[in-house]
Amino acid sequence: MSTKVAIIYYSQTGTVATMANRLAQTAESLGAEVRVRSVGRDGDEAAADEPQRPTPDDIVWADVVLFGTPTRYGNVAGRLKVFIDSLGAQWAQGQLADKVYAGFTSSQTAHGGQETTLLALYNTIHHFGGLIVSPGYTDGSKFVDGNPYGVSHVTGPANDAPVDDTVNTALDHLVTRAIGISTKLNA
């Protein structure tokens, strides 16, 4: 039985979407079944190149949930938070508990609040009864990217710094670790 991974994100400039796609590719290469969902950009219509919008069923279905958000003043972006806040019925039924959760983020500056954004995201996961599987310093790559709470990327003020090998390696480690822990828990 393959691990089911839901990657739910908001991306304003495309960076978090790029990160989400890398996570999906790596998860699929590990044999996972993957759903990639975007909470959407401005406007009510999804762009043609955008994944489906998430539903509560995507979270209920998953063994592993990876949330991605740009930083907003050191916090989760409102669009993702609105989706998360809509999960009250599933929370009340215990359908969000006992799953592996982790997060990824981006900001324009090196000290733009990536770590506080991930920690703020994890406050909700504690309420879910979810199992936070942060990467910590469990791989040498984490000493290079420097974020033990998840994965983060600095885009620069012009939002033009591409997601590089350092970030891709950290993303690969994050999803590999999350799937590995989920597999052990469900064995």
Automatic annotation (TrEMBL):
Top-rank taxon, per record: Bacteria
* Gene Ontology CC annotation, any one: membrane
Keyword check for Oxidoreductase: yes
* UniProt cross-references to PROSITE patterns, sorted A to Z: FLAVODOXIN_LIKE
Q: What Gene3D superfamilies does the record point to? A: 3.40.50.360
- UniProt-listed Pfam families: FMN_red (PF03358)
InterPro entries for the chain: Flavodoxin/NO_synth (IPR008254), Flavoprotein-like_sf (IPR029039), FMN_Rdtase-like_dom (IPR005025)
Q: Where is the Flavodoxin-like domain?
A: 5-175
Molecular function (Gene Ontology), one example: FMN binding
Enzyme Commission number(s): 1.6.5.2
What is this enzyme's class at the first EC digit? oxidoreductase
Keywords from the named record: Oxidoreductase
List, alphabetically, the PANTHER family matched: FLAVODOXIN-RELATED PROTEIN WRBA-RELATED (PTHR30546), FLAVOPROTEIN-LIKE PROTEIN YCP4-RELATED (PTHR30546:SF23)
Name of the protein in question: NAD(P)H dehydrogenase (Quinone)
Name the species this protein comes from: Microlunatus kandeliicorticis
